[in-house]
Amino acid sequence: MPPYPPAVSAASTAPPATLVPEPFRDQWAEMWAAHGRGDLPTAVALASQMEVLLEDLHGPRHPYTITMLTARAWLTLCRRTDWPATVELLIKTALRRQAARAQPEADTLRAARNAHACWHVVAKRDTAAAQSLAGPLADMLTALGLNELRANVQGLVQAQASRTVS
Question: What is the pLDDT of residues 132-144, one digit of tens each?
């Protein structure tokens, strides 16, 4: 037996294709295969295309649409680029999941906490962008009952404002 675990294919680690309707399952598999290859731009593009189509077919709160929005948000987060847009997408995802009462609820809270963590990256790099995202982020955190995280955002915004005034 080799001293390391066997390679795991992207297909075996992808969420089940049954999360999307039959006509989308090949594209779902292709999206996760792109992720497995490290081709995140392709994976995000495929997720975005499927999300638009699913929203047109089923509406913004349908479980298929919510699943695809959640996948796109996670894949976008994995890219680690355009942090302000990632925060906006994660806020949208958390709020849409909450409005749809999407399950598992842990995925909704994860999107919210990821938005908060990404916002901290933005705050370190671009104070103006962080300021513009702080209100929507705080509102979303309040809506989800994540008051400690909301207080953290508000405290950092106030600290930045006082440094600017001094």
Answer: 999 999 999 999 9
Burial 34-53 (b: 16+ CB within 10 A, else e): bbbeeebebbbebbbebbeb
pTM of the prediction? Answer: 0.88
Model confidence at 7: pLDDT above 80: no
Per-residue H/E/C for the chain: CCCCCCCCCHHHHCCCHHHCCHHHHHHHHHHHHHHHHCCHHHHHHHHHHHHHHHHHHHCCCCHHHHHHHHHHHHHHHHHCCCHHHHHHHHHHHHHHHHHHCCCCHHHHHHHHHHHHHHHHHHHHHCHHHHHHHHHHHHHHHHHCCCHHHHHHHHHHHHHHHHHHHC
